[in-house]
Structure formats: structure tokens, C-alpha cells
């Protein structure tokens, strides 16, 4: 259990460290959403696909994309984002259809932000075809909207890693077992809430992890980010080649 907690904290701290490093670029940041990304993605493996909006550095890191690849993409100003905010829900439905047809046991997770575009259409499709999809939205009220579609809508605190992890685990298990889609309504105060502090307080108060262990992870992650930034960059001629990172 302590290994899992250390791993979860490392993921969240890495997301925060990368976000702090790229703050000067003026890009869309994911500060405050570390618990949501980690709590969901730590249930996923190589069978699964995720899709996100323009604030998706954290999702990719939580899914296991190498930090050096994420930072190199940002530094070269070649951040690959979803073409349109509205395309995310149907995009992940496509991945879920493929997983279902190929019987891989894979699931798709769509991080929707404020639930834009084709969300309700995608939910209707996923419900009708019982697709293995989890829709994650910050938009209040969506959990109530999906009741008429027969889709479970679960409201959770997106700043609480443990609440997110539990709800996401149930949703992923349901999807893998053929139970169809789930919507997680997970709000969090962007740029304000500190889910890392909440995590540290809980695990240290319970005695599951010591402050020194968490401090050591902080130092290791900081060094990883510094080393990644200092790593050799691609030559200009290479910038248009192989710019996509699989996740």
C-alpha cells in the first residue's frame, strides 16, 4: 500500500513540477487538477486510451508519458492538443468502439473540462452501445443530466485523490466488465486548490508515509524536471518529424 501511495504522490508532484516549469510559456495550465489526473489514470494500462482538452499535460504524465517527451514538445512549441474542444467526447467513443470490437478489455477516458461540444451526443451513443467509456467533467449538473440515459453519474471532489481513485476504480471496472459508460463530475478550484497538501496531510497523519519520504520524492521530481529541460533538443529539421507521443 505504501508503494502505491508513494507512486501516486510522485505522479501528482511530477505534474505540478512540470506545470510550474512551463508557467512562463503562457500556456493553459493544469494546476489544481493533479489528484483528478492521477486518481483516474492510475487505474489504466496499455489497453486504454485517454483524450483531453487543451489543459492535458497532467493527463499525459499520469498515463505514463515520459516527462522529457512532454517538456520537449512544449519547449519546441509543438504542443499537440485536441483540434476542437467539442471533439473530445466522440473521439474517445471511437477508441472505445475499437476496444469493444477487438475485445481487448480496454477502456477510454475523456477528460472534458467544462463538458463542451458533443458531450451529450457522445453520452447518448456510449449508453446505447454500452461502450467502455468514462467521461470526466468539471461542469456541475452533468451527473444529473445523464440519469435519463441510464448512465451512472457520480459527483466527487476532484481535489481529493482518494475520492477520485475510488470512484474511478469502480467506473473502470464497470466498463471492463461490459457495464457501459460512467460520468464522473469532479470539480476542483483551478489555480487555487492544493490537492498535494491534502494528500500529504492525510498520509502523514495516518502514519502511512513520513514527511521525509515525501520530501525525498519532491527532490527527485525536481531534479528529473531540471534534467529533462537541460536534455539535448532536436535539430530544427527534426521538429516536424514524429511529433506525436503515444499515450
Could you give the topology of this structure?
Layout: H1 2-21, H2 34-41, E1 49-51, H3 57-63, H4 67-75, H5 88-102, E2 108-111, H6 119-128, E3 133-137, H7 142-145, E4 153-157, H8 161-176, E5 182-187, H9 195-205, H10 211-230
Parallel strand pairs: 1-2, 2-3, 3-5, 4-5
Helix pairs in contact: 1-2, 1-3, 1-9, 1-10, 2-3, 2-8, 4-10, 5-6
Verbal overview:
By secondary structure, the chain is of the alpha/beta class. 49% of the residues lie in helices and 9% in strands. The chain has helices at 2-21, 34-41, 57-63, 67-75, 88-102, 119-128, 142-145, 161-176, 195-205, 211-230; strands spanning 49-51, 108-111, 133-137, 153-157, 182-187. Strands 1-2-3-5-4 form a 5-stranded parallel sheet, with helices on both faces. Helix 8 (161-176) links the parallel strand 4 and strand 5 (182-187). The radius of gyration is 18 Å and the shape is globular. The two termini are 26 Å apart.
Write out key terms for the chains shown.
single chain, 247 residues, 9% strand
How much of the sequence is in beta strands? 5-15%
Terminus-to-terminus distance: 26 Å
The portion of residues assigned to helices is 40-55%
Rg (CA only): 18 Å
Structural class: alpha/beta
Q: How many helices does DSSP assign?
A: 10
Report the mean per-residue pLDDT as an integer. 85
Q: Could you write a compact summary of the structure shown?
A:
This protein has helices at 2-21, 34-41, 57-63, 67-75, 88-102, 119-128, 142-145, 161-176, 195-205, 211-230, and strands spanning 49-51, 108-111, 133-137, 153-157, 182-187. With 247 residues, it is an alpha/beta fold.
